[in-house]
């Protein structure tokens, strides 16, 4: 009882509570080549959804004037070689979530910009960095444009076959104009599959494939061999055998396609092929 000698007074023992506050302060990441700036996350910013030990990263990509760069490809590579790729939005932001804390390498590239990269540290929670990129001067290789010229159907087909590499050999109008030959046979000299020869005073192109069997004449041996003279056509019309090729005026010629044999001859020219073995020289005159 209270006031009694030797008596015990009952009281309540109050225990104080000790509260320990641990504050983790993250210092700024090191800049790489002056391209990256760290931005401290706002106090109390929430951790990314999921594992609280993971981090989220927002990269702001800006140009030299500080304006946001949209549609840039941002690649993030971690210490374990895992890669993540995002494209910046109209505000120049690329957002990455669920990143393991540690060092990452960020790379940025876009057409017209110099590729840049930088090392950054991602901690648990929110992280934000800014990367600055610079314009890249682009040197265009000279391009020769050939277009805007209308061809008749026959010349269009010739140009199509020429560009496709179908003929065994080709002579173009530009080559003829540059050399200015007196006789068209000059443009054929030196081709590997033929030689220019003379047959009874007529200039002809002779195939180097070899001789060809001749029609037996009355009283002659049935299996004679003669020179393999190539047939000639002009604008799709086959000329008589042994036509003088130099009767064609060079300045009137748009192009020549040569077929040494039937194997390379396209279907549209098969109607001209009266001699399968010796080949064909198809001449196309210029449009008037």
TrEMBL record:
Record protein name field: TonB-dependent receptor plug domain-containing protein
Entry-linked SUPFAM superfamilies: Porins, Starch-binding domain-like
TonB-dependent receptor plug domain ranges (all copies): 168-263
InterPro entries named among the record's database cross-references: Carb-bd-like_fold (IPR013784), Plug_dom (IPR012910), Plug_dom_sf (IPR037066)
Gene Ontology molecular function terms on file: carbohydrate binding
Phylogenetic placement of the source organism: Bacteria, Pseudomonadati, Gemmatimonadota, Gemmatimonadia, Gemmatimonadales
């Amino acid at each position: 009882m209270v006031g009694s000698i030797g008596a015990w007074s009952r009281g309540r023992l109050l225990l104080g509570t000790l509260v320990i506050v641990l504050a983790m302060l993250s210092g700024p990441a090191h800049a790489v080549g002056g391209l990256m700036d760290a931005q401290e996350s706002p106090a109390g910013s929430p951790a990314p959804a999921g594992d609280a030990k993971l981090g989220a990263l927002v990269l702001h990509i800006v140009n030299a004037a500080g304006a946001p760069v949209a549609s840039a490809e941002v690649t993030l590579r971690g210490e374990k070689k895992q890669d993540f790729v995002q494209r910046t939005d109209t505000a120049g932001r690329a957002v990455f979530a669920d990143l393991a804390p540690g060092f990452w390498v960020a790379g940025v590239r876009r057409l017209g910009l110099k590729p840049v990269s930088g090392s950054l540290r991602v901690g648990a929670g929110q992280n934000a960095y800014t990367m600055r990129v610079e314009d890249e001067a682009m040197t265009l290789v000279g391009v020769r444009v050939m277009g805007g010229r209308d061809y008749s159907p026959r010349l269009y087909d010739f140009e199509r076959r020429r560009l496709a590499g179908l003929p065994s050999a080709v002579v173009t109008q530009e080559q003829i104009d540059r050399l200015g030959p007196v006789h068209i046979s000059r443009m054929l000299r030196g081709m590997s599959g033929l030689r220019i020869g003379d047959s009874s005073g007529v200039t002809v192109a002779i195939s180097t494939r070899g001789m060809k069997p001749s029609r037996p004449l009355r009283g002659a041996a049935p299996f004679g061999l003669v020179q393999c003279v190539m047939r000639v056509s002009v604008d799709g019309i086959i000329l008589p055998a042994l036509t003088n090729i130099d009767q064609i005026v060079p300045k009137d010629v748009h192009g020549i396609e040569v077929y040494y044999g039937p194997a390379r001859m396209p279907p549209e020219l098969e109607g001209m092929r009266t001699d399968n073995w010796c080949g064909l020289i198809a001449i196309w005159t210029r449009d008037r």
